[in-house]
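Weekly sync, protein design subgroup
Attendees: M.S., D.O., the rotation student, P.L. (late)

Item 1: inverse folding check
M.S. brought a backbone from last month's batch and wanted to see whether the design step gives back something sensible before we order anything. D.O. pointed out we never logged the input encoding, so this time it goes straight into the notes. Structure tokens as presented (381 positions):
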């Protein structure tokens, strides 16, 4: 039964072009190496190693750098212990008007006092600047390292400059050690992000990032299995480029170098537009969608790969809309002032609930460290 399921999942007719089978890829010519699906599985245990490496990096590198820059964890103000309010907080962080009035009668507290308690309690769960600095330091280091590595081997690859070469003699194309290392490193990193997303700084676009990570992991895994490495490495390199500037902007923001933060964020916005809204759709997706059709012809998984690429492109458009709003304010107001993805409120919102005409949920859309919560994605990617 299991062998039948495995054969059905890895059907030749689904994953490979017409008249090509997995058996054809089992015996490459002398001196030629084809991808083996079992080899990409090494990324799973490696993801655990990447996560442990991240913890060491944050402890031994990022935190000392933060101390040099005088970035402290800080101790948030503690909310007054109250069992009734705590029970409601665990189920609803922002009570509505009727709940506030009910609590006011039950506890004999003023509504404003209850609102203030919830604000302080939320800020207790707010991640510290030090934690966010350490997260961004790790991502900045990885994106920079993997981008440099990707460019170093793609620069001398002929298919980088002529994308039609990605499909000549496909899928019977030699896998280089650089391609394999690039794939395994990226896949291990994204698996580690998938795990750590549940313990990292929470953001409003949690589900979007989850879809992004799932689409990215699926693309990397399946494109490796059917030897779509040439196009795959181009996709990964293009995605990593702009993320470097994003993480650098966030680091500058946490260190309170506002002008540097604004400048880096504008550079990030420009690089995001060029790489993900110009190069990615008109160079890479065009190659996978049009050139592969002309040279190889469509097959079942061809539709899957192009569908996943278009999902990523849709996410890029959504993110760029948010990025552009922030970048325009940075250019015309001289300061990166808002991140619509932010899910925590800042201490500057202390009196936000006291304004009668405002709904209490509105204050959750504010954060003094707005650029710190914008992933862009990675990546993202």
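Designed sequence read out in the meeting:
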């Amino acid at each position: 039964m299991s062998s039948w399921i495995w054969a059905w999942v890895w059907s030749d007719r689904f994953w490979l072009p017409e008249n090509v089978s997995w058996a054809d890829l089992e015996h490459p010519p002398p001196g030629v190496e084809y991808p083996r699906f079992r080899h990409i599985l090494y990324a799973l245990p490696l993801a655990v190693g990447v996560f442990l490496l991240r913890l060491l990096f944050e402890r031994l590198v990022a935190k000392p750098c933060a101390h040099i820059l005088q970035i402290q964890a800080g101790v948030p103000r503690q909310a007054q212990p109250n069992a009734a309010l705590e029970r409601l907080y665990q189920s609803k962080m922002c009570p509505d008007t009727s709940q506030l009035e009910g609590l006011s009668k039950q506890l004999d507290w003023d509504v404003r006092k209850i609102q203030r308690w919830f604000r302080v309690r939320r800020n207790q769960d707010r991640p510290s600047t030090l934690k966010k600095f350490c997260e961004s330091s790790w991502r900045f280091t990885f994106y920079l390292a993997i981008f440099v590595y990707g460019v170093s081997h793609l620069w001398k690859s002929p298919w980088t400059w002529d994308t039609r070469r990605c499909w000549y003699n496909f899928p019977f194309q030699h896998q280089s050690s650089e391609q394999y290392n690039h794939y395994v490193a990226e896949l291990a990193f994204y698996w580690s992000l998938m795990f750590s997303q549940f313990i990292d700084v929470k953001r409003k676009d949690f589900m979007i990032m989850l879809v992004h990570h799932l689409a990215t992991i699926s693309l990397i895994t399946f494109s490796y299995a059917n030897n779509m490495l040439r196009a795959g490495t181009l996709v990964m390199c293009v995605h990593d480029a702009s993320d470097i500037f994003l993480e650098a902007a966030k680091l500058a923001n946490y260190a309170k170098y506002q002008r540097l933060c604004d400048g880096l964020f504008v550079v990030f916005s420009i690089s995001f537009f060029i790489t993900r809204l110009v190069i990615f759709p008109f160079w890479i997706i065009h190659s996978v969608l049009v050139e592969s059709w002309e040279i190889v012809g469509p097959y079942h998984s061809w539709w899957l790969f192009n569908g996943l690429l278009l999902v990523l492109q849709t996410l890029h458009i959504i993110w760029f809309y948010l990025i552009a709003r922030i970048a325009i304010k940075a250019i015309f107001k001289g300061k990166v002032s808002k991140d619509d993805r932010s899910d925590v409120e800042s201490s500057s919102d202390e009196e936000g609930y006291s304004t009668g005409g405002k709904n209490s949920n509105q204050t959750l859309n504010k954060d003094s460290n707005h650029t710190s919560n914008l992933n862009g994605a990675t990546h993202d990617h």
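Discussion: The CA atoms of residues 47 and 192 lie 5 Å apart. Confidence is low (pLDDT under 50) at residues 338-381.
Action: P.L. to compare against the previous round before Friday.
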